[in-house]
Amino acid sequence: MAEPKALELVDLRHTFNEGTVNEVRALRGVDLVMEPGAFVVVLGFNGSGKSSLLNAVAGTLIPAHGKVLVHGEDVTHWPEHRRAGLVGRVFQDPLRGTAPRLTIAENLAVAAQRGRRWPDLRRALSRGKREALAARVHELGMGLEDRLDTPIGALSGGQRQALTLLMATSVSPRILLLDEHTAALDPKSAELVLGLTEEIVRKLKLTTLMVTHSMAQAVRLGDRVLMMHRGRVVRDYRGPRKRRLRAEELLDNFDELRNEDMMDESAAGMLERMYL
Q1: Of 51, 255, 266, 271, which alpha carbon lies 20 to 30 A from 116's?
Q2: pLDDT one-digit tens code per residue, 121-136
Q3: Three-class DSSP category at 217
């Protein structure tokens, strides 16, 4: 029997504020199939549908139409908390992925209980478990294994994001979502977190869906790049084409899309003048 796909998105469609002047067609028939261990990077302008796509996978957005399947199971209408054991997520803002008043050890212990119906934090913070947590934190190379009782809110953004990455992958999720997770960091911290991302994804063989504005990251990471525009996937680079991909080619494609938008707006303005 063939192994199920890690992630299948089937004809996802969603419109915000439908029927009003503020109507936004965020997803317009998005299809995506990811094999286990695949690493897909998603690029696009603001408003292209990238965040809506990730939210549909995470469960924070229930699409108006279409299906979301994780390892063959239809999770389309599962709320976010029910998907917690299947989907790990790292947000752009380091503050969103952690509880600032809890210690490093407590944050990691909470993450390790994700998806369990009856979490037991006391057991998760037992002596043996703390030693295992310290060993994982040691792998970050930041010296934080000696600061497990430090409130995580006292750390820098880069340190918190590195720990958030550990938390999101602590239960080896079926799908890892990276939501512009280095965009809010300084260049040095961003490079550190990016290196950790590559290492963890490779080591755990995680199926990863990453949104970014960085064309350099899109070229560097993953085995496939999707370019979204107006709620649709308009470019799909994979295989040899992905390996040959350069940032300059992506820039040219973005310029083409921008020019198409300008032409559409110009045509719409001309029609408006004709009929008003």
Answers
A1: 51
A2: 566 566 777 888 888 8
A3: helix
**Is beta strand 87-90 parallel, antiparallel or unpaired with respect to 175-179?**
parallel
Cβ atoms 171, 124 nearer than 8 A:
no
Q: How many CB atoms lie within 10 A of CB 169?
A: 21
Q: How far is CA 253 from the centre of its chain?
A: 23
Sequence-ordered alpha helix ranges (H) in the chain: 50-58, 104-112, 121-124, 127-138, 157-168, 187-204, 215-220, 239-243, 247-275
Residue 65: strand pairing partners: 13
Q: pLDDT for 2-45, tens place per residue?
A: 788 999 999 999 999 998 989 999 999 999 999 999 999 999 98
Please name which of 190, 234, 176, 227 lies closest in space to residue 39, comparing C-alpha atoms. 176
d(CA 257, CA 108): 42
Buried/exposed code over 225-244 (b: 16+ C-beta within 10 A; e: otherwise): bbbbbbbbbbbebeeeebee
* Domain 7-245, CATH class in plain words: alpha beta
Q: Is 273 exposed, middle or buried (0-12, 13-18, 19+ CB in 10 A)?
A: exposed
Q: Are strands 65-70 and 7-16 parallel, antiparallel or unpaired?
A: antiparallel
